[in-house]
Each structure stands twice: as structure tokens, then as C-alpha cells.
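TEACHING EXERCISE
Course module: macromolecular assemblies
Task: Read the component lines below, then compare them to the predicted structure of the full complex.
Student: A.B.
Group: 4
Components provided:
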Amino acid sequence: MIGPREGKMISSQFRRMVLSAALAVVCAGNAFAMNVRAIVQDDAGKPVKDAVVYATSLDSEAPLPQKPLDAVMDQQDREFVPYVLPIQAGTIVYFPNHDDLRHQVYSISPAKKFQLPLYKGLPPAPVLFDRPGAVALGCNIHDWMIAYIYVVETPYFTKTGEDGRVKMQNLPQGTYEVRVWHPLMKGAPESTGKRAAAAPRDGADNDLELSFRITLKPEWRPPRAPAVKGGEYR
Amino acid sequence: MLQDRRLVRPAAALLFIAALFIMTSAAHAEWLIDAEFSAVYESNINGAIAGQDRKSDVALVPAVSFGHYAQPADSTSIAVSADMKYSGFARFSGLDHLESGLAASVKYKWGLGSYAPWIKIFGSGAHVDFREDFRDEDLARAGLLTGKRMYERIFAQIGYAYESGSARDSRFDTRNGIVSAKLDYLLTESVQTWIGYAFGSGVYIANLPFSGAAPFNPRAVVVHTFQQPMGAFQLRADARILSLGARKTVTNHWSVDVSADFIDIFGNERHYPDSIYKVNAAYSY
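Instructor-supplied answer key:
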């Protein structure tokens, strides 16, 4: 469901991503890097999908953050795609609407308040997210449409897949705090923090394994399910 | 309002044309394609007083709706649809009927987000074609509904609707105004429950053994719908309706509902109790 315009944008993103990765290795100043593998599970031990895992350097001489890439929050079949989008502060996010109807995307979260008036296709301008924090997105027409953008200050972040696992590769040598955030998580990300440190080790990279347990709460979305006469949003 | 049957069809047509006119001027309209299949049990389908006179029946009810939904402005939406519903009864086939009509509504939302309150004005007109021709009628319905999400799991709405039915035989004309309130509660992330209460007042149709019907209304008509001759007559009455239900979301486009309506119609100093139980599957495009 990616149109030519977004395809070009994503291709550009990929080139920038490769360059950024190369830059990161050079900036690290030495050949040693750290690979962090993590698993996020709920209280019952089930893997948690869409958990953001991010590593923040605790070193005063940490390399400068890389210039963030642009990102895309799509709308398909009256749902946001993806459900969770982690980005670095300073990222520009595009909100293409691939539905054959109009959406009115908004956020009233303190980290970013904005509203895109009714549109189809691409809105007139992307949105800059320059403050860290969670941004809950909604559509004012289709109330069940909910998604989250999580803005972090570090360039080292990713999110879990179905298996609850993530892998962050080639973090420059140093000490980091690794945290987890999930939109339905009880408690603040600070409470999940784990220290991860790596030092040169016989010329080999350091591989660290971390595991996180988080408590999830239900998500109370306005129902989307059909109701023939007098349907919920009509 | 709309009590004169001559006004029913033109009013419904006018409503639809006006809505359609606004719709076609909207740049982006969304198609509505809804379908529903229900099994309905009614304990006192003939509206009788005494227990031994009450007749129950089960109906299978497929329904479809096609239409347009448009959002001409951030806060305002319009929906128009053509609706068709068939009711086929297991025992009393004289009540089998096809209802076809048009409906339109305009909804206004104050502000952004799912907690913003809204108000909806709606109207519809339909022709109901019964197997027993004398029951054929034109239905007109209009009203308003307002609602708000109160808490993350609780939604509330109140409304008023006026309905008028003009039958081929005017002795089967009905009309009533209903005030209603409903609370929806999300039991789980995929199960929604509700409780509703409605109070209506107007003219309904009741049935008694003919000898008993005549004193109530000298215009009582003998009908053979219910396997024995009964007197059908217009009854000026009040109705109280308690509704309970639950809806399970199956997918983004499918849901399954179970519901019950407990109805007490009170007229001529007598009660006409009725219960309606319904199971249905609904699809929305």
C-alpha cells in the first residue's frame, strides 16, 4: 500500500539510514560495538508486541545524536499502520491516507498537539515531532482509530515484533540505560531501566541479553464493530 | 407532525432528496454497505392481554442497507441510505413483510476526540408490504439523538423519536412518540453491553378474542392471522421498554449481538406485556 511518492521517500530514508549507520561506526572512534538483544514479556510470560526498547547513553562523551530519519504513519482500512511508531526527537512524520475516504488525524498529547483537517492522500505538510514523550493519535471521524508515536531522544531504539524480541546492533562502546515503553504499560518507562555497559574485549563485539517484564492494561477503544441501523459513528 | 398520511411519503422523499443534494456536493463520500441477519422471538406478537390469548412466534430477519456517508466539514457528517428488511415468521405467515425505504441523518460533533459530545437528527420513510394486504403501511420516523462517551468504558445517549404508520386499512394506523436513554458499557475490549429504557406514548394495535375487543374499540376488525379469529383494534396506550444487550466484535467488519426487550404497554387500564429476544450477526463494509 505504498504509493510512488512514499516509495521515493522511503528509498531516500534507506539511503540516509545506511549513511547514518556508517557515520555511527566512524563516530564511535573504535571498532568495538555492542549488540543488545532483549525480550519483553507481560506478567504471564507472553511476548509483548509493539513495545519500544531504547538505549540512552550515560556517558558524558557520547557521540552526538544522528540526524533522525523521516517516518510514516499510514492509514489503511480505517486503522493507523503501524500501531506504534518509535522515532527520534526531530523526526518528520508523514501521514498518508490510503483509504478511499477522508480522515481527520489529531493528537492532544502534551508531547505534540496537532490536527490535520479532513484529507485524503497526503496532507499538505508532514508533522515535526521535536519533544520526547508519548503521542496518542486519533481520527475524529473514526473514533476507534488509535495509534501511538513514541518520541525518544536517543538514536538507539526499536520495537518488538510478535515474538516480543528486539535486536539493537552496533551501539558504540559505552554505558547505556535501556528502557521499555508500551502504550498499555502500567508505570513509567523509567521503572524498566536496565544498565548495559560494554568495554573492548579481545577485539570482539559485546553481546548483551536483557529481559523485561511489564504489566499491561486493557485498551478501551470505542467499538468499531458494525451496528446496522444507527451504527456507532454515523 | 406527519400524522396526516398524505404527508408521509412526500415528507420522506423530500428528506431524502435534500440529504442527497448535500451529499452529492461533498467531495469525498464513503460507501455504506451494511447487512444483518437476525433471529427474533416475540412472546406476545398479537398484543393480547390475557396469557391464554397471547401468541408467540419466531422470525428470521435479513436486512441490507446501501448508502453514502459524507463528512462535509470537520464537525458535521451526513448519512443517507436505502434500506430493505424482510421478516419471515414461523407460525403466523400473515405477518411476513418486506420493509423498504430511505433514511437520512445529520450528525454534529462538538470538538475533537472520542469524548466529544454529538447530536444527530434523523428521518426515514418506508413502505411495509405484508402478506396480509390490509396491514400494508407507510412508515415515517423522525427524531434526534444525542450522546457522549462519559468514561473510557461508558457511553451514554438519549433521544426522542416520533413514528407514524399509515396503513391501507386506517384501522391499523399507528403513531407514537418515544423518549429513550441508553448506556453502553465495554465489558471487555471486544464485548460491549448495554441497558436502555424507553417511554412511549401513542396508538398501538392490540388483539383480543373478538367478543372482548369490541367493547374496547367499536372499530375492531376481525383478523385470522393468529389461527383463531381475533379482534384487532387501535389502543391508545403508554409503552415502557427495558432493553438489555451485548455485542461481540468478531472482526473489524463483523459483530454478533444478543439482546432482549421487555415491553409493557398500558392502555385501557390493562397491561399488554411482551418480550422480544434477538440474536443477530451484522456486517459493515
